[in-house]
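Translate sequence into structure tokens.
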Amino acid sequence: MQFLRKSKGLSQEELTLKLNMVRQTVSKWDRGLSVPDAEMLVAIGEVLDTPVSTLPGETVPASEPEGLQALSEKLEVLNDQFARAQESKRRALHALCIAIAAITAPVLIALATIGSSYLEWDFSNPEYAVAATLLHGLEWVFVRITPIVLLVTIAGTLGTRRKA
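Result follows.
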């Protein structure tokens, strides 16, 4: 207790004034000849702004390690939730890449096999002309974009597969 009193810059006289007692009692505490009672320990703790558990000289574990342990457990739970969310996103992206590739490849193969039969339509009919123009535009865009889409989806499928 003497070390704490001195570290707070208090003399025996100053402490006795704050506690309303005689200096000889504080001197006995400093020399280890007596120990303050429980009520006095609380008062000394308030004056020295120190937890009562540190006053007798034996440090009782403070609640900080428990607080740190609780914080550590909360962070572990958050990390686990974050990892699960990331794994869920990875699985969804992997499935999406596979689905896009599985749909795009057969459509491209079907277009190549069937050919552009709409080019043989009678374009004197305005409805056929509009429909053929739309089909030709869609086919033209699809045929030029599909190889890029397939490459991206294959790369995405390989990039999102589970690593062992």
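Note: Residues 53 and 60 are 5 Å apart (CA to CA).
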